[in-house]
Predict the 3D structure of the following.
Amino acid sequence: MMEMQESPRTPVVMAQLSWFFGIATIVKLLLIPSYHSTDLEVHRHWLAITHSLPLSQWYTDETSEWTLDYPPFFAYLERFLSMFAHLIDPQIVHLHHGLNYKANSAIYFQRMSVIVSDLFLLYGVYRSTLALASLKRNLIWLLVIWSPGLLIVDHLHFQYNGFLFGWLLLSLSFLAQGRDVMGGFLFAVLLCFKHLFAVAAPVYFVYLLRHYCRGGLVRGFARLSVMGAIVVAVFVAAYGPFVYHGQIQEVIRRMFPFGRGLCHAYWAPNFWVFYIMLDKGIAFLLRKFGFNIPAPVASFTGGLVGDASPFAILPRVTPLTTFIMVLLALLPCLFRTWKDPRPRLIVRSVAYAYTCGFLFGWHVHEKASLHFSIPLAIVAVESLEDAKHYFLLSIGNASPLLSLC
Amino acid sequence: MKKKGEIKKVKKVKDKVNDGQDDDPWWWLVQEGIRPSFLCISLFALLVRVAVGLHPYSGARTPPKFGDYEAQRHWMEITLNLPPKDWYRNSSVNDLSYWGLDYPPLTAYQSYVHGVFLKTFDPDSVALFTSRGYESYLGKLLMRWTVLSSDVLIFFPAVLYFVLVYRSMRFGMGQNSDVAWHIAMILLNPCLILIDHGHFQYNCISLGLTIAAIAAALSQKDLVASVLYCLALNHKQMSAYFAPAFFGYLLGKCLRKKNPLLEVTKLGLMVIGTFAVVWWPYLQSKDAALAVLSRLAPFERGIYEDYVANFWCTSSVLVKWKKLYSTQSLRIFSLAATLITCLPSMVQQILAPSSKGFLYALLNTSFSFYLFSFQVHEKSILLPLLPLTLLALEESRSILWLTHFAMFSMFPLLHRDKLVLAYMALYALFILVYFAPCGPSGRCHGTKTLDNTQKTKRSVDFITSITFHPLLMGFLGLCSLILHVIYLTMHPPNKYPFLFEAVIMLICFSQFVLFTFYFNSKQWMLSKHLTSKDKQKKLI
């Protein structure tokens, strides 16, 4: 995979991939009038915020409960989309009149924006499979482009994951080719679109440090500075304007809403579910034995709970605990990447990192299971064992998605 | 949803060694044979149908008459709450002027079964009287499910049966991926999906029974074929479009057997028996049977309705048929015209019955009926399209072109139903499937296409060259594209409110007529081909 084979068959490959993508697009088009979650209104409101307010108020506005909580690049994207939305129907981007606006124009525009933004996914998949044999390439296309999970989350539930995974796959394809600078740059951009992808940042850091910044102290340091400068530049482009307006604290507070509780309203099937069940079980037993155990004040699944502890017996889980747990779970992978930073293994490591984040993270959405199942699809064609793992995981994570529909 | 990717992937690395298949993008779909690939394609076809079901149905929220959806629901209401003898009779409890039942008894039974299903989950939706114009989310869901289940239980298995029979007929001609393409062309026919799952009808049942009958006839099970075809006929009287072809083919085969009279008697008994069973509740008295019959033939509705691309409607631009002649004489005209135009293909099948000829005969007779019979709807184009999709591998050029015009001829109807999005999506799906990479029309192998028009003789070449003339095709394609846009964006002049419909009708009619000539000549060339081969054999 190190060298890209730019064969004359490239246009044929692109045509075939576009065909698969076209079929998926048709299903997406047919799904336009289907059910959608409140995320449609969330994103519509973000269009309105970014269109009607100056940049300095994007992260402070409280017109609706759906405040902007994605990083700045995503806000810029919404700003870009809102220009077209304004042309189609000004009410979509109106801060007050647009609230809960459910006209066809709004729904069609937003659905179409997701469908079009999936072109990034198309390119990401294309680039990461270009060097593979035709059979493997085909299978990856099927698994990613026709992924039922992505279809449900993006085109029924409503989100822009296809677009974001496009960036991730693009970044991974550059790393797999050995073009580390480009890979690092794209990952930094991705982080500024959606910070949930940061779970893989330690893996990226260790990998780039060991694979890119090598070749002696001087050369290594020079390369480290280059990479650092690039990442810093990306972050400055994203957050600079907000620092300039003195808004950076608001931005950070919105992006990390730790007040939201350990589990999301819909439970993700992760480690904390067992922890909570254990807590309930012990409390139940102790009550049977005559201990007076007060019932917890807060519930687990309330979307916006306060600071009260939801646990009866077991120690309370704080965001810091989850953070440490994730890092601990990542350690073996980081260690291995440190010892043996091979481009062949990077996709696998990143997928592993997202699995850890899913299992131990704070306030994890069930949708986050896509974070590992999409990159894992690329690994799945390498051997039969990988395929089995992928199969189990994807069956496992398709079921919680049911609750979204 | 699209689980097929996941199901497939386990098998994938099993034999990597298979390097010969390396460039085939369909290896994952077709490597296990016809049945698994049929399963995958039908799952996808099901997904598409479910997705189309999300869109509006005909007459949604348009009181007082609503549309076909309300008609079907009303039939469920009537059949569920009244005894069979009252189903077709006007009475104080059954107002026939409000969507009275006008399909044969099998449709009524099907409505009854579906009515029971609806009643279990949503009794209000089929309550007598009070449910008129009943519309709810649950009601729509249940109704969509009845169509989906009919499709899966009748149409899909029938297609599998046909494909297996057809495949065995062609002796390994064509690869597995061609078969998969053929299945996709039948199952993903945009017109059928739009009418059944968008507009709302149960064509899948009668067409499914017809396909099963065709498959049975092709595999020499003539008695089964006649029963199945009678069932189709008893579900929708429009299935009579295929009657001359069935008649010709089965009779032609009987005549070649040892004891023709016995064979014909057997077939006749099967037909009479099937009819007797289906019509049983109405055979008690002559009046009852006649009452049903008069419901089935709505002559009072005139020779055509709306703007349908058939002969009577199109020529009425010049000749005002309805004013010049009485309904009585128009009935005779249309009957005569239909029979005369059917005659060549029927006679050809009686003289030289052959499998391929039978499929062409089905196509030709259904086109004659569509063009010349009494009271034709836009939706009736589904019937000629069915044998055409069955012939997809032989007629790969025609199917692209005719599906285009069939869709186009239904565009005003679907536009009224607010199905434009589904229309465009399914049209694109059809084009994509048609030009699938490495499919019969994808040509990535760089080998011959299966369209064997090149092989036929010179006299056909003349018609072929007109039908497929690149200039004509380009011009009409451009016209229809522009008309789509005009129809969607502009208002017709006040003086001619149906101007666009009329233009669409003219264009489609011209193509349908051209193709009718083309297919008729192809059918006759087949028998010439055969006879010359026979002669050669005899000489040898």
